[in-house]
Design a protein that fits this description.
The protein has helices at 36-56, 62-65, 71-80; strands at residues 7-16, 19-24, 29-33, 91-100. The chain has three helices and four strands. A hairpin with a 2-residue loop joins strand 1 (7-16) and strand 2. It has one domain (7-100): Double Stranded RNA Binding Domain, CATH 3.30.160. The protein has a four-stranded antiparallel beta sheet, with helices on both faces. The chain starts with 6 loop residues before the first strand and ends with a strand.
Length: 101
């Protein structure tokens, strides 16, 4: 469970048709762009801003840091992290889990 003090977020950057998509699964953040490096930077900035904003919310703020993931992105994550390679319909630039501090 993510808290304002610690946690992690899963990210995927992939190409869907002619556009690059960056997703922070646990926060339901999506960024799009023409270049995967641009999307990586925009996603990083969006994650940082999201965490800063979540820290400012009083009360039950953990719900914002532990959101239900979109089924399409969750399935893609499962395929990418499977011990057996699963063919993806997307060209994947990067994926991984980032530790938040």
């Amino acid at each position: 469970m993510n808290t304002p003090a610690k946690g992690s977020v899963r990210t995927i950057i992939f190409k869907d048709k002619n556009i690059w998509v960056g997703v922070a699964l646990d926060f339901n953040i999506v960024e799009i762009g023409d270049d995967p490096r641009e999307v990586f930077l925009m996603l990083d900035e969006a994650i940082r801003g999201y965490i800063i904003s979540a820290k400012k919310i009083k009360g039950s703020r953990y719900q914002f840091l532990n959101q239900q993931t979109d089924n399409e992105y969750e399935k893609l994550w499962t395929n990418l992290t499977s011990p057996k390679p699963v063919k993806s319909p997307y060209k994947v630039y990067s994926f991984g889990e980032r530790v938040l501090s």
